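Pipeline run #58 for the internal structure catalog. This entry was flagged by the ingest filter as a single-chain record with no existing model, so it goes straight to prediction. Upstream metadata was stripped on purpose; only the residue string is passed forward. Reviewer on rotation: M.T. Logging verbosity set to normal.
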Amino acid sequence: MAQQSIIPVILSGGSGQRLWPLSRELYPKQLINLVSDRSLLQETVSRLRGRLFTDPVVVCNDEHRFIVAEQLHEIGVDAPTIILEPRRRNTAPAAALAALVLERRNPDAIMLLAPSDHVIDDAKAFLAAVDAALPAALDGRLVTFGVTPDRPATGYGYIKKGKALAESAGCFAIGRFAEKPDAETATRYLAASDYLWNSGLFMFLAGRYLAALEELRPDMLSACRKAVAGGRDDLNFFRPDESAFEACPAQSIDYAVMEHTTAGAVVPVEMGWHDVGSWAALWEIGDKDANGNVRVGDVVADGVKNSYLRSDGPMLAAVGLEEVFIIATRDAVLAMSKKAIDRLKSIVKGLREGGRTEHASHPRVHRPWGWYETLETGAGYQVKHLMVRPGQGISLQAHKHRAEHWVVVAGQATVTRGDEIISLNENESTHLPAGTRHRLANETGEPLSVIEVQSGSYLGEDDIIRFEDQYGRE
């Protein structure tokens, strides 16, 4: 009998506030190249390919759907299932949505649930742990993976390992879950040798997880069933019903299921696991110089110790500092003592409540056709750089309050301007008066780069009337 495939279910719904200003609501940490030349999402999906694995199921926010799809395409995953979570309701409902979708195809589907923002240095050790967990999952166990601790960490929850399961080598019963400890308790856990870090990785049969929810959180399961039953396909995405899912309680898998079930099991593993949740975590896993500094980008340091210095924009110079985080992007700079790291969320909250935009997006805003970046803004005008990917194009649209002037700086553009269609090459341009129906398309195999100059009484992104859109946007 052929061995059953495992379906990776990737949870990609976080906003990554603790990694601001690099992570933003519209482009969060899992979509950013933080530790390699691929995003955390791409690294996670790449670990779960080949061998026993099918194409993944990704649960993500609606705002990120096109970026997620494009990033998966970049690494050769062209047939994923992407579920658009209508509201953030934590991991238990997100996993339920995926399980219900998979149950339609195969009631015995095996889910490997993985957050999209973790780093695993030893992929072979992780895959060996998956092999060890598989028999227990097939036997109806709800399996989690416990990381063998190498220090008394206070930033992770812990799992106490129970008795070994005779029928599943390498698996243990779960003694209990423990909250994030203080330093003294964490030291005691490390010395005891039967406490593991709670990795947030799980494996189980889709139907078995739903049965556990039916027993322990029937209200949550009922809301998710209604959301999936009332959902619809939208291009390559699945949209659960928003009103039904909004009624779903928000809770993690640990609290909703794992702390209460008698079917739980844990597989201990040493795999170089890191939860990349903060600048402190990136400093811990980063390559350090002789003074204990992690430096990323165009950084110059003199007399700086034990710090994380990163610039994704201008040259960053730091002098005579210790135990700090300094992160520079094109539109924001964060300078923070390591002791004040827990106060970063209040800064992000203040930006949001103050009506600013830096908490939400970077100057470069991603769209399904490519991206645009605002270069300059003044009274009655705005200048943007547009990049349109090969084979893509903006919607057929018009603006009430602004005119636009397009200059092609690289590539070839196909422009709809009223009733005519024209071709523009490098250094050629066209003017689009307010009210003109227009579209910018790239029908070539090379990227299209365009400078857009807007002028008018109102330049907001909501001044747009769409007549046709290949991406299903209203």
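catalog note: The first helix runs from residue 40 to 47.
catalog note: The chain has eleven helices and 28 strands.
status: ready for reviewer M.T.
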